[in-house]
Every structure is written in C-alpha cells, then in structure tokens.
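Justification of computing resources. Each target in the renewal requires a structure prediction run like the one illustrated here; the chain below, 101 residues long, is used simply to show the kind of job we budget for.
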Amino acid sequence: MAQLLSAIAQRKCYTHILAPATSFGKNLLPRAAALLDTSPLNDVSRIVDRHTFVRLRASGFGRWNRPIYAGDALATVSMTDSKEGVPICLTVSATNPNLPH
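Resulting structure tokens:
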C-alpha cells in the first residue's frame, strides 16, 4: 500500500499527502514517506500555511505549534526538510475541534 501511495504521489506531483491520525494512517504514512525520502509529520491539528502546521505532540523536525504538557503549552514548528518535488506527508487528527470545517 505504501509503495502504491508513494508511486501515485510521485507521478501526480502532489505537494502534500494527508492521512487520518489513526493506527492505519500512522502505520502507512511513515512507510510512504520513507519511500519518498522525506519525514512524516503526525497528529496535525491545524494547517497554518503550506509549510507550517499545528501539531498535537512535541517531536520531529522544523518549526510547529503544538500542545505539550498534557495540552497546557504550545510549541511552534515549520517543515524545513521538504525537498523540491517531494510531498509533505502528514497525519491529521480527526477529533480536534479547532480544525476548519
């Protein structure tokens, strides 16, 4: 499945690949990201712009805005390791009430 997803992403020149932040999405997306030679970003709760996202957990690369300490504090992070022509891979939290409708 990851091979198929990465092949489609490369052929269609997608800029982003999104998956639900479920067990399925968190298992599939890292494998697809590895095939695309990029890092995945998990538990996104809000998209700020093309390279900036709000995350639910503290870890990873770049600059993001995400709650830490049981959601009482936020940290800001940006996706800086994306290569030209390689999509940004992220899982999106479906239960976050702050996502736009």
